[in-house]
Specification:
Blueprint (H helix, E strand, L loop, with lengths): L2 H12 L4 H49 L32 E3 L16 E9 L13 E10 L2 E11 L5
Antiparallel strand pairs: 1-2, 2-3, 3-4
Length: 168
């Protein structure tokens, strides 16, 4: 029997691990720690994405609450978009929000939600043909699109159609 084999046998008898056994155990622990770190990171990313989706959806719903009760367009108005001299506080119909962007987003009273400073809400109001839903001019229907973005990444979008009421 060689001296190396005898030394390994004596080491086991004394309860001492060999260098190779220690190296393998260290490698296994390092791989387990790395896998755990990647798992924790992916769970955090999923949680953050879910949180952003909930907040983005709430911000889009808030804009819907602001826009839903407004009339289609100014009676007899020829301007698509805000009329001269109108401000956010005096917007009184849907087309006034044509190509609007709000950062931070608005609350239901049209005030600023300062806690959401990294968020941007973009509103697009487009006249569409009622039968094809393609963009058109001077029609009785608009498509409203509200987009919630955070750090230049689209989180949520909401779309709806609005037709001119018979008495508008």
């Amino acid at each position: 029997m060689s001296n190396g084999a005898r030394a390994g046998r004596h080491a086991r008898e004394r309860g001492i691990f060999t260098f190779v056994e220690i190296l393998l155990a260290t490698l296994v622990l390092a791989l387990a720690a790395t896998a755990t770190a990647y798992w924790v990171e992916s769970v955090n990313e999923l949680t953050t994405g879910a949180d952003e989706a909930v907040v983005g959806d709430a911000l889009v719903k808030t804009m819907e609450e602001i826009l839903a009760p407004l009339p289609f367009r100014e009676p007899g108005g020829t301007t698509f978009g805000p009329e001269p001299g109108e401000t956010l506080a005096t917007y009184d119909d849907l087309d006034d929000f044509y190509r609007s962007t709000y950062s931070p987003p608005l609350n239901k009273d049209r005030g600023v939600q300062a806690d959401y400073g990294t968020w941007t809400i973009t509103v697009s109001v487009t006249e569409v043909d009622p039968t094809t839903l393609l963009p058109a001019v001077d029609t009785d229907m608009v498509r409203v699109k509200v987009t919630a973005t955070r750090k230049d990444r689209v989180i949520t979008e909401g779309y709806w159609l609005r037709a001119r009421a018979a008495l508008e």
